[in-house]
Amino acid sequence: MTHLQPDCRIYLVVEATAAAVEQLTAAAEAGDVACCLIVPAAGAAIEAAAARSLVAAAQRAGVAALIADATDLAGTLRADGVHLTPRPQVLDAYAAARQSLGRDAIVGADVGISRHDAMSLAEAGADYIAFGAPSHLKDRPRARERRDDLVSWWGEIFEVPCVALDVEGPAEAQRLARAGSNFVAVTVPMGAAAGATRALVAEIGAAIASGAEAG
User: Fold this and answer.
1) Which of 4, 26, 59, 188 is least crowded, fewest Cβ atoms below 10 Å from its Cβ?
2) Domain 9-214 has CATH 3.20.20.70
3) What does pTM read for this prediction?
């Protein structure tokens, strides 16, 4: 198992709502947040107005703002890039996003459990590869174990950064950082108060830091 990556940082995930600006600001104050992924609320499309405010707030805080899947919206809002969720033909989606946003934009992808897609995207120039344990999978221990194995495999072999998604607590964050993940995703619960968000991010950050000391 690889040691904790020295650049392991927080990858914040927030839903595109007006309240999320306060959550994002609190998170950036509480920990080392590298980027913020803006996702739609369940069953809805991303609200452009809310996303615009979040992009502006993230960039003011020195946090890279990424939009989930909506490449055109990312370009319109001058976000820092786009995150691609799992799909068939992910290489085609990557190529289209890269062509649309340009070489300076961040384009990363969640590859599900496909090692082949992960390696192909890295060769194509993706800025990061993400592995997760989505909440719709009922066997949570198995989903987390599979994600952890993929993170560890990737961290031992490849230089392209890795994001560990769907992290549910500090112990999990620490373990994933030790496995070689460069970024640990912290999902802000819908409607969470700023104080709760600040505490969550600080707790995850402390877990990562303690792992670095132990390593």
Assistant:
1) 59
2) yes
3) 0.92
